[in-house]
Protein 1
Amino acid sequence: MPTKHERILRYIEQLDVGEKISVRTIARELGVSEGTAYRAIKEAENQGLVNTVERVGTVRVERKRRSNIERLTFAEVVNIVDGHVLGGRAGLHKTLNKFVIGAMKLEAMMRYVEPGNLLIVGNRYNVHRISLQRGAAVLITGGFDTTEEVKALADELELPVISCSYDTFTVASMINRAIYDRLIKKEILLVEDVIARDHKPVYLKVDDPVARFHEKVKETGHSRYPVVDDGGKVQGMVTAKDVVGHDSTERIERVMTRNPITVTPKTSLASAAHEMVWEGIELLPVVNDQRRLLGVISRQDVIKSLQYMQKQPQVGETINDIIFRGFEEVREKNGTLVFRGKVTPQMSDSLGTLSIGVLTGLMTEAAIRILRRHRRGDLVIENLTIYTLKPVQLESEVELIPRVLEMGRKSAKLELEVFHDGNLVSKAMLTAQMIER
């Protein structure tokens, strides 16, 4: 029998996209307390079933697939450009396919305007109307208004007309930056990308006998399982090692390992991998906010997924990529690998010296690059200790020299030195955990 929480989630899933919901409405419709309704709506938001839109409320939205994560909703555009909605508020939950800048004659402009687009334009009222008729939303720059006719048409077609005070170039840059950030996020694998939603996890209950464990081993061929209570909450983990020497009638609760490490669907795969390597764990339960079991991920699942991602083309630059862009890699005559570059204005702090945060980024990026030459695979920086730190002025040439001190199967230790004009300006020790292949 489903719990109240599960009943509410099923109810929300059956609502039409765009329909508004509230704690009070859910509580009244399903006969539950407002506290229960609130917690269920928060869970629905975590699952991507609903979204809270400023000045609109909580609405049922289409769950974003991982492949479409770079697409923005019109409500998100409103927040990005600090705009206000003139009409078509009911369509704020919809996503835009691309944006078009209206800086040409009407006939030429309309060749590019298609359903699902966002047209960025100034106070050209005729363009506003035709754009809506073609199925595209409108973003009016310069803080201008539009006509009552256009507002009524926007409400009728449920296509937002948004106004903001920024100019066209600034607005386009802001939206482009938001999409670019989404592309970087798309590269980061999460646990939810690995677990199979249509595959029910195999588990044992706390009051099952040890004999049930042996039955599961014969059925599945696996040797470790999560243990749940009657409410489906994870209480422990049990492995073949735990049941050795115990009578077949003894309860699983007596032999299991309590309070196991768990992850949520939104945990990054790199974090899950680090937990597995650091704690020597082969299997992690995946739970929701109430610690109810959603699935499991194994070390093999993690490794295969990380290997797959390394073969994919990269679409976005991270901060480390940007700050390391101006550095060249040089091999000295004695075989030492050196990274040389200049301190640019973007890398400086308010005093015009090399920012400590940028310096840390340079060191970790250099360490990652040299470690990947010694061993293919992924790694997680575990510790960085800076022993020496002297100011480095803007436009200064610096040399970064990483040296591997120890290289084990699971960990590595490096020394990093930064020089300016032959003088040591920074020195650090770094350790990293290797993710096995």
Note: The chain has four domains: 4-60, 66-187, 192-309, 319-435.
Protein 2
Amino acid sequence: MKKDANTPAANEPTAERGSQAIHRALQLLKCFSVERPTVSLTELTRQTGLTMPTVHRMVKALQSSGFLVQDAVTNRYSLGPAVMTLARVMMHRSANEDLVTAAMPHLEELRSITNETVGLHCPTAEARYCVAELVSRQPLRLSTGVGHTYELFIGATGHAILAFSKPETVERVLTRLEHADRRDYPEFEIPTREQIEAELATIRRQGYAMSLGEVVANATAVAAPILSDQGIAVAAVNVTGPADRWTRPLMEQHTSDLIKVARQISARLGYPD
């Protein structure tokens, strides 16, 4: 009988077999990226070169440990909460510490003024993730969760960052948007390139972005960028809440408070106004 190339020999030392399993698990985890946050079992098999039974066995082990989760509808896999826990450890000891330290008093002030959830988000190459969040004290409130990642072409916060990103970043994100498989984003309302370009021009003119149910149904958000001395977004502050309470008129009423806080954080980081 032909031996599976992915199956360790019976007399192979236990330590070596254990090391091989670790390397295979890491191979699987590396298949996920900002560009491809969800992956099917077939895609995992193709990308790693492992057999389907091996991949299936490894995926089940990663699921049981919280490193992967499976969508019950699409059967596709995505990174699980255990990965986010590790990411938080890295983020808290990274350069973002200075940003969070500088921002926290101003985020507290903004939450007190608006009485809604206030968050601080940073860009990666083509996405953004939450580095700090102060959840509303009201019984009904929204929470993104520290470590949660979103595309830059989705939501007010992503648009606020994208509007003040480098031109090559904007073009890269918009090109990926044009080729995005909307089935990979069933929970999001994905805009067209033309819609994004028009909105980015408006955001640059007014200094803030707004979204109404774009990321989460019946939720609204307003966001403003934190800019470097070259006018490039290094982060963004957002305020989110339920649509029936955090209404457009109320968000517009607080845009000056939001922009003021973003500028104060920029100044704390040493960026001139």
Note: The chain has two domains: 14-79, 86-268.
Protein 3
Amino acid sequence: MLLPSILLILLSACIQAPNSPKKNIEKTEVHATDEKHWGYSGETSPRHWAEIEKNSDCDGELQSPINIIHRSADSIKISNKFEMFYTPNTFLSEVQNDGHSIKFAFKSIDSIRYKKDIYYLKQIHFHEPAEHKINGLIYPIEMHLVHQSASGKYTVLGILGEEGAESDLFEFFQSFLPLENGETKTINEQIDLSYLQLDKKSYYTYKGSLTTPPCTESVNWVVFKEPFILSVEEVLTLKSNMPINNYRIEQPLNGRIVKYNF
């Protein structure tokens, strides 16, 4: 009776043995599909973007935003490096809450010229608080006007927001809010951005990156010294429609030169 019992135990072990490795493989496969998406808090915060976005530039040497120190900037006289071709009839197509910011999209009509290249206005979005600092000062909000050339290069205009009087522009923007996360509204209305006359204001320029993944480098940054004035209520309305603290932390200069154009 002993020999048949031993054979039965061995046969049972042979049948059950393949099941153990199979369970381990299933656990590994489930874990591999549990991918993270970048955000602004916890394990998806800007400190982890380079780990999450493997094929991005988020760990590059020319990243944005930065702290602009005015006395360290290379001051130069403006010489037609930056021109605006905005019309009173800029066509605003839609607004979207993409879970990271509120984004207003435009038809590719209005444009700017920067260093002899033409860049078309693609979108306006917001960060709260501001991403760029001037002399260490953090403003309550920053507006980014994203422009792209026909060849795919970027020039981004950064306008810092300061709390004060009501802004007609921001009243117009917030008339399309609130927006739920993932919601898009069609607008198809005209807006006058030409009155901003940004090409007549003093500004800082430097080579940087997009401030959200994939953190694409070789972006021309134009950050205006004079802040835009909007009301506390307008700041709070934008804030309530975006993730808390949807800003990227300050990035090292790594030897880059910031120029002050006046």
Note: Residues 180 and 187 are 16 Å apart (CA to CA).
